[in-house]
Amino acid sequence: MLRVEHLTKIYPNGTVALKDVSFEVPDGEFLVVIGLSGSGKSTLLRCINRLIEPTEGKIYWNDVDITAASPAQLRQIRRQIGMIFQQFNLVRRSKVITNVLAGRLGYVNPWLSLLGIWPAEERRRALAALERVGIADKAYERADALSGGQQQRVGIARALMQEPRLILADEPVASLDPVLAHSILQYLEELNKEGVTVICSLHFLDLVHRYATRVIALKQGVKVFEGKPQEIDRQRFKEIYGEEAQEVRAASL
Amino acid sequence: MQAMPALQRITRSALLIALVIVVLGFSWRATGIDLPRLLRDLPKGATLVRAFLTPDLFTREVETSVIGVDFPVPCGSAPQGVPPTNGPRLLPSVGCAAPGETFTLMGKEFPASSEILVRWLLPDGRTLNAVRVRTDAQGAFTATLQARPILTTQDGKSARLEAEIQRPVGGLKPSQALRDVAREMFVTIFMALLSTTIATLIAAPLSFLAASNITRRGCLGSGVYYLSRSFFNIIRAYDPLVMATIFAFWLGYGPFAGVLALTVVTIASLGKLFSEVVENIDPGPLEALQACGANRLQTVRYAVVPQIVPDFISFIIYHWDINVRISTIIGYVGGGGIGFYLSQRINGFEYNQAGTALWAIVIVVWLMDFLSAEVRKRVV
Amino acid sequence: MSERKWLLSAFLPGAGQFLGGRRYRGGAILLLWLILVVIVAAYGQPIWWISPILIWLWNIWDAFHLQRLGREASLFLPLLAGLSVLYGIGWQITQIDLRSADMRRALQIVRPMLRPDFVQPRRELNQMWVEILVPCKENPPRAFNKLDGKTAMATPDCARVGEVVIVSVQGLWPNTDTQIWWQTPIGDPKMLGPNESQMLILPTDDNGALSATIRVPTTALVAAPDPSLALPHRVYFDQYRNVGGWELSFNGREVLKGAGVTIAMALMATVLASLFAIPISFLAARNLMGGHPVTFAIYFAVRTFLNVLRSIESLILALIFVVIVGLGPFAGVLALALHSIAALGKLYADVLESIDPGPIEAIRATGANWAQVVRYAVIPQIISPFVAFTIYRWDINVRSATIIGLVGGGGIGYLLVELIRINDMRGVSAVFITIAVIVIALDVLSARIRERLV
């Protein structure tokens, strides 16, 4: 159970990215955050694991206050929260398996990990994670030798290594060909069915209809909509995206 | 209306040209440029260059033999020597002489066309070089000598005329200079190796302090960042040779001073380059690992290090190349190695030996240039 | 037999790997092992033999591993063993001795460096002297002097070396420290304090008077041609007073002069070099010279010459020019200029080679000759990169000029060597600060100008 209360983020240059946003995410939900570029989606996701420090407001994860956690506590919380990025954020010059193992850094002995020594069990786990996303054969190739879709699967495998109870996915398919979008989102859906809560920001409305169990819409940092995906009709759409917007379907591209 | 700007432009150009002429004139005088002197002294340079072009590389072992004949001064003070009738022999025109008298000395059946040193063996056992001669094609020579008062017979022992023949035996051997140069070159290369290694070990962690994306957080971080930045920038302004003067003054002449001076400057220079590499890394992986709950050190180890290692290696090899170059000359100001050998040979006017060192420097520098270019091509 | 191939590595390192199909691995092992053996044999103490032996054992293990398990053994051990020997021997032959790094001496060097000798407070000198005959002769003149209302006298009027003399002075500034020192007839200063190695300093009383007992310095007659000849020596009384404000000290003036000469050296060298390099670069540009076998031969010869010259450090050229034209900035200018001709010649030629051939074609099509083509199609394209490279070279030459002084090339480097020789660390510190300022300032300046040009 994730609870966000009155979250506000003002950047040092004065930009108000989030303004008094509150919502709850029950366990097992697939929550999608929509909004225009710059509406605060990324900021919201990054505030949840405090990659960005919120200016005001509270975030409770199973009744633990993330915003008040000490650095050590924060690492404890972060390792339960997987994150998937638009730009994949892999170390391009490292091998795929190293990138996946890195997801486990919060669990293993920090000193051994600095020497690059990993327990055999962790290696097995990493290979299993790669197996699950279907690229086990690429484990010993350099990450930059992979295509975009494969790189994002490495990103998912890395998140899987954390055995997460919550996954934050920041535009996971925005840098990919639309035809690859479903294959990536299906992995997230599969995880969601296994009981992992997913919070995902997306661009394409048809993907939202297909995967989301609930939707939050942001507009200039303010929550303008919360509800079922089916409730987003033409009127709502114009409210969220502005009068000029035309709906584009990922599948039609 | 248009005349004014044109006039202004001309005035400005004229002023600028005048300024340039004044500056150049001042520089001409301050640097004491004296072209006539250069033209006059160029022949000196030609001898120098000729000596450099004939480096001292090999010697033959020589066998020295001495032929002699007793020569009493004055006559009758001791028995006259009797030269042998065949083989190499010295034939003075007179068998003895009064002090101050001059005479002719003939030599026969010496090795043909070779250099012979004629000298006196004094009654007290010391030697006095008389003349250096060259034998003709038949192995004969003539020389005019003077019987000096110092040759006077003492205690019935007369002076003796001697000729020293040096005959090369055996094959060519590396000369003393070549062996010295090889040893000093070995030291020089190790100086570069050690200084580059030590500098890398220190500069790599320091460079993180001078990288704005790693350090610059909060008041302390900014302080550390600016401190390390300015340290790098100031130290980098000094050539290692300038540094070496002060280290040689502290530690005495020798390779240790050179290694330390090179190390200090290389730390600054590598630190600057490294910190730029660190600043240019992709921040995405850092974010991703933080989100996984990795601590600061783990983030550096898994997100930063893999991104920077190839560039670091390239810069290290580049600096190793530069350091070999500099360590060949750092000895000139007290840093040890081949440069010290070179300075001693030049100050002692032993230009052939200096030539050996110069050739060694040119060859090693070229070799390192080539090697480092090859290796860097592979790495990047 | 063939399954025991790995045993061959025991006889010749790398042989087992080589025959097992890993040719590069085998060859590399043999080569590196031999290099290590040579280094250890030539320079090491017996203990270093551990390393080749360890690597030899590892090599057998590696061959065995490869053949039986098809896996390479870890490179960790041989790398460690090889590197430790390399660095151990390097440590030894570069005479790194941390004990010789005497920290007390370092402090003695660094402490005065914290007070660079650039400026000093402006001071005013109040001086008085009296003449005394050494050694005595008959009827010596009175040792008395009267000057500007000040009087000084010595009793007795003459003395031998080592004898005691009482000197007194009146009319100086009251209650001020006064330095008392001896000057021989040829102008050598001698100190009168303890052991004749310290300055004798005494304060004047309320009336500006002072009286002191001194001994004629033992070295007073050392440089005298005839020690028995009585000549007048002087005892000086010096008082200093700050008059406010600051002035350049002697070292400060010298440092500024040296800095000026250094910059001038670099400037002259760059100007001379570019005058020579511009025509040479046209001969070294392939696109201008490649048309005909003769011109191509010239191009090749010039390029080779530039490459050889460029690989000789300007410092080494300076050594040669110091022998030819003597110590001084002229030798430095020549060395820098010669090196810069090679460097600039190559850079200019590269610029010429990268120019756009279109305008050349167009001008040539109008029937222009070679010189006209250069004037109207080439020069407009090259002027700003040429200027940029020249300024860049000036920047580098300033850096080089500081070190060329170290070998006698004049300028601030020469001053540095001289100051270190006389152990004047405050002056050395001023030199170091000035070098940093010049180099960094010119760095910034040249970067600015080049940014604007390109």
Q: Would you identify the regions of chain A where 5 or more consecutive residues have pLDDT less than 50?
A: none
Reading off the top of the CATH hierarchy, the class of the largest domain in chain A is best stated as Alpha Beta
| Number of H- or I-type helical stretches of chain C | 15
- In whole angstroms, how far apart are the ends of chain A? 36 Å
Topology:
The complex is a heterotrimer of chains A (253), B (380) and C (454).
Chain A: E1 2-10, E2 16-25, E3 30-34, H1 41-48, E4 56-61, E5 64-65, H2 71-78, E6 81-84, H3 96-101, H4 110-114, H5 120-132, H6 148-161, E7 166-170, H7 178-193, E8 197-201, H8 205-211, E9 214-219, E10 222-227, H9 234-241
Parallel strand pairs in A: 3-8, 3-9, 6-7, 7-8
Antiparallel strand pairs in A: 1-2, 1-4, 4-5, 9-10
Helix pairs in contact in A: 5-6, 6-7
Chain B: H1 3-30, H2 35-53, E1 58-71, E2 89-92, E3 102-108, E4 115-121, E5 127-134, E6 141-146, E7 159-174, H3 176-209, H4 212-215, H5 218-236, H6 240-251, H7 255-279, H8 284-291, H9 296-330, H10 338-347, H11 351-379
Antiparallel strand pairs in B: 1-7, 2-3, 3-6, 4-5, 4-7
Helix pairs in contact in B: 2-11, 3-7, 3-9, 3-11, 5-7, 6-7, 7-9, 8-9, 9-10, 9-11, 10-11
Chain C: H1 8-11, H2 15-19, H3 23-43, H4 50-69, H5 76-93, H6 103-113, E1 119-134, E2 144-147, E3 150-155, E4 164-170, E5 177-183, E6 189-191, E7 200-203, E8 210-215, E9 231-248, H7 250-283, H8 286-289, H9 293-310, H10 314-325, H11 329-353, H12 357-365, H13 370-404, H14 412-421, H15 425-453
Antiparallel strand pairs in C: 1-9, 2-3, 3-4, 4-8, 5-6, 5-7, 5-9
